[in-house]
Each structure stands twice: as structure tokens, then as C-alpha cells.
Amino acid sequence: MNFRQRRLREDPDINLIPLIDILIVILIFLFLTTTYSRYAELQINLPEASADRAIDRPQMLSVTVDSVGKYAINGTATPYGSAQTFAQSLRDAAKGAKDPVIAISADAAATHQAVINVMESARMAGYNHISFTTQTRR
């Protein structure tokens, strides 16, 4: 004899949405509270070496252009007559160096043409490495 009434049994189901929400909160908590060490867990002593400075470091010529268009090479005032004469001044300041780096320090109010004059003179002198100096904003 079967005394049980015929009831439809519902299959239990697991709602995953609250579980996912809780896991996300736990992950966020772990991300925010974890401290990351900069060093590896292994303590190592790095080898030491002593080396001389590189001998073939390129020479640097500092060319300064102020706001009124006056030029200076390595701190020495140099008049700009033409691109050829200024190129010769660059060669003289390089003192026979093969390919020095020309560092142009131009005032913010200097004209664009004044900087182009220096670049053209460097090209005529055969110097291809040109860099510009800047400063950070305060």
C-alpha cells in the first residue's frame, strides 16, 4: 500500500547570481587589501663589476639661442653671419670630433628661423645628431 499522496516534487535548483556577487565582493576586497612587494621572495646578491667609462662617448656641442636671436656655442657668444660661417664655428668648437651631438637650447620666445639656422649649419658641417633641450613645467 502506498500511503503517500502523489505530490510533484520540485527539483532543487541553485541560484548562482548571489554566489557570483559574493565572490566579486571578496575579490575586490582582496585586490584592495593586498600589498605587493617589490622584491622577489628569493634573497639574492647580485655580482659586482667595475668597468671604466666608455671611451667612444660622442662629444656634445651645446648651442644656445636666446629670445633676441643671439647664438652661443658651448657658452661662448658666436655671431651668426651665414650658415657657412656658423658651420665653420661648429667645426672649430668640435675640435676634430667625428660626429658630435648638437644640443640646441632655444629660448621659448626664440624665433623658429633661429633654430632652423642652427640645424642648417649643423647639416652643412656634416653633423647629423641633433637634440633639443627642454625643461619641465613648474
In which range does the helix fraction lie? 25-40%
- Poorly predicted spans: none
Order of helices and strands: HEEEHEHE
Query: Looking at CATH, which topology of the domain at 60-132 would you report?
Result: Nucleotidyltransferase, domain 5
Number of strands: 5
Q: How is the largest sheet built, in terms of strand order?
A: 3-2-1-4-5
Radius of gyration: 36 Å
What gross morphology would you assign? elongated
Task: Describe the sheet with the most strands.
Answer: 5 strands, mixed
Architecture (CATH level 2) name of the domain at 60-132: 2-Layer Sandwich
CATH secondary-structure class of the domain at 60-132? Alpha Beta
How many helices? 3
N- and C-termini, Cα separation: 94 Å
Mean pLDDT equals 82
Structural class computed from helices and strand pairing: alpha/beta
DSSP strand content: 15-25%
Report on this structure:
This protein has helices at residues 16-33, 83-94, 112-125; strands at residues 60-65, 71-73, 76-78, 101-106, 130-132. It has 138 residues and is an alpha/beta fold. It has a domain at 60-132: Nucleotidyltransferase, domain 5 (2-Layer Sandwich). Strands 3-2-1-4-5 form a five-stranded mixed beta sheet, with helices on one face. The longest helix has 18 residues, at 16-33.
